[in-house]
User: Which sequence fits this backbone?
């Protein structure tokens, strides 16, 4: 029986064990295979084929083949480079373009010599809704002079504007656009320092433009009898000046000349400083009495000055004869206008139009030059210092002169050198080489100036230095020693610190008042060159 039970019991228990053993591998194998098949079929259908194709995966080796044709465009670019060169200036100019370069230099230098803030060509029709101040001033002055030339009127006006705003060019352009060429007399208050010199200059210019002697008939014979060994006997036109007794009569006869007369007075405020203002009174009185009649040809007096209150320094009798017309000019208000004026001058057309390729290359090089970051920075710094367009012309002239066949493009280094020559040299270029205590005193002086005190004493700077040492605890100099005092005396000897008053008796040196001639920007540059982080932090506290 035991044998039978032993035989039967394993049969009862073994199936359970067998079933449990059989079910465990089924849970491992049967669920996992469908998951892999579903994932591979749904997510990566390209991997659904059997593994036999995975073994054949190395054939994607032909993929590097597309890289081989990529070398051919490089070769093509190298070959096609000469086709792009006509739009750019080469580094070394070919010999056939030497005449074009010389012609471009002449045209550009002429344009830079006559560079103006006035609108050029089609620049008047900009997107701006209202015309610029110079355009309105030009139209007003041209209309005034047109009335003098065409209708024989007597007019007077004053052109006022800052230096470099195009006052003289405005007057000259208005005269050049008149329908009839008038007699133009140009006087300057810097050359004609008194009325006698001014009247003699008027007589000289009238004699040159009319070709007639302005002497009375009875004076001609006496002058002809006198022999002057320095005058050629066969001279075409003998210009003679009237005697002083007849000089004042010249002004009254100006309206009766065969052509209209325009008198320009540069430095009008300087003529107002002459004794009794006799010249201005005679000119303006003649203008006021001029009427549009058949015998008169018209006269106009145009004063040019930078002084705004010039009309207030005129005498009452002179002011009553002045028309009161004031025409105002202005410089270029925006930096983009400066760049536009520079581009217009640099891209001046040359006379030889056969070199079309040269014009395209030159214009492209000018555009790339004006868009260079360093060029923009240099010009913007100059624009912030002065808006005088003549300064821009001088900078570009030095750059254009440096052009040569080996370097036909405008150079940024030449422009930087020209900017350095035009600016004043730094007064205190040695600040960065000073000792640590000296630079600390400079920073303390900047603190004092920021607090609103232009003058200071040694004790004030010493206290500021002590406070900084206590807060930072990093100063390689003794506070109580003589290092600070010696540094202060060194700055005084270098005239960085200047005494505001002479030393008085009974006042110690430490209580004398000084001022710092070094600007904050110069102190900042010196601190930056030292590389001391603690000094930089201390300087920024003064802002």
Assistant:
């Amino acid at each position: 029986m035991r044998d039978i039970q032993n035989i039967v019991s394993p049969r009862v228990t073994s199936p359970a064990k067998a079933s449990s053993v059989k079910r465990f591998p089924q849970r491992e194998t049967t669920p996992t295979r469908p998951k892999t098949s579903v994932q591979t079929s749904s997510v990566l259908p390209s991997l659904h084929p059997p593994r036999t194709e995975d073994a054949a995966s190395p054939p994607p080796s032909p993929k590097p083949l597309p890289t081989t044709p990529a070398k051919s465009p490089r070769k093509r670019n190298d070959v096609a480079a000469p086709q792009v060169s006509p739009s750019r200036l080469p580094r070394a100019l070919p010999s056939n373009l030497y005449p074009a370069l010389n012609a471009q230099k002449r045209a550009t230098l002429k344009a830079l010599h006559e560079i103006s803030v006035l609108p050029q060509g089609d620049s008047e029709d900009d997107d701006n809704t209202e015309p610029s101040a110079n355009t309105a001033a030009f139209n007003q002055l041209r209309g005034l002079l047109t009335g003098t030339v065409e209708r024989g009127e007597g007019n007077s006006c004053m052109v006022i504007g800052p230096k470099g705003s195009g006052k003289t060019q405005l007057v000259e352009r208005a005269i050049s656009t008149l329908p009839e060429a008038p007699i133009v007399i140009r006087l300057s208050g810097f050359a004609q320092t008194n009325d006698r010199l001014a009247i003699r200059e008027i007589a000289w210019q009238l004699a040159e433009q009319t070709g007639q002697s302005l002497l009375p008939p009875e004076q001609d014979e006496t002058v002809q009898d006198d022999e002057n060994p320095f005058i050629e006997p066969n001279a075409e036109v003998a210009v003679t000046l009237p005697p002083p007794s007849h000089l004042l009569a010249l002004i009254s006869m100006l309206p009766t000349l065969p052509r209209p007369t325009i008198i320009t007075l540069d430095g009008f405020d300087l003529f107002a400083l002459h004794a009794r203002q006799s010249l201005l009174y005679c000119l303006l009185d003649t203008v006021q009495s001029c009427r549009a009649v058949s015998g008169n040809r018209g006269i106009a007096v145009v004063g040019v000055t930078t002084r705004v209150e010039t009309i207030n320094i005129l005498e009452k009798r002179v002011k009553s004869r002045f028309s009161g017309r004031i025409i105002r000019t202005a410089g270029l208000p925006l930096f983009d206008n400066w760049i536009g004026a520079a581009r217009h001058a640099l891209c001046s057309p040359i006379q030889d139009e056969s070199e079309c390729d040269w014009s395209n290359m030159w214009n492209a090089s000018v555009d790339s030059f004006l868009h260079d970051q360093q060029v923009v920075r240099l010009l913007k710094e100059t624009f912030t210092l002065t808006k005088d367009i003549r300064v821009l012309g001088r900078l570009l002239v030095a750059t254009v002169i440096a052009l040569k066949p080996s370097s036909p493009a405008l150079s940024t280094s030449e422009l930087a050198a020209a900017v350095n020559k035009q600016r004043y040299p730094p007064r205190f270029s040695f600040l960065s080489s000073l000792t640590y205590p000296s630079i600390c005193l400079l920073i303390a002086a900047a603190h004092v100036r920021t607090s609103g005190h232009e003058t200071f004493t040694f004790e004030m700077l010493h206290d500021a230095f002590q406070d900084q040492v206590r807060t930072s605890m990093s100063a390689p100099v003794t506070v109580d020693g003589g290092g600070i005092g010696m540094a202060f005396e060194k700055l005084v000897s270098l005239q960085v610190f200047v005494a505001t008053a002479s030393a008085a008796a009974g006042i110690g040196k430490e209580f004398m008042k000084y001022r710092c001639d070094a600007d904050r920007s110069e102190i900042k540059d010196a601190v930056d060159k030292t590389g001391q982080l603690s000094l930089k932090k201390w300087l920024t506290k003064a802002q």
Observations:
- The longest strand covers residues 154-160.
- Residues 2-51 form one domain.
- The radius of gyration is 44 Å.
- Residues 456 and 513 are 5 Å apart (CA to CA).
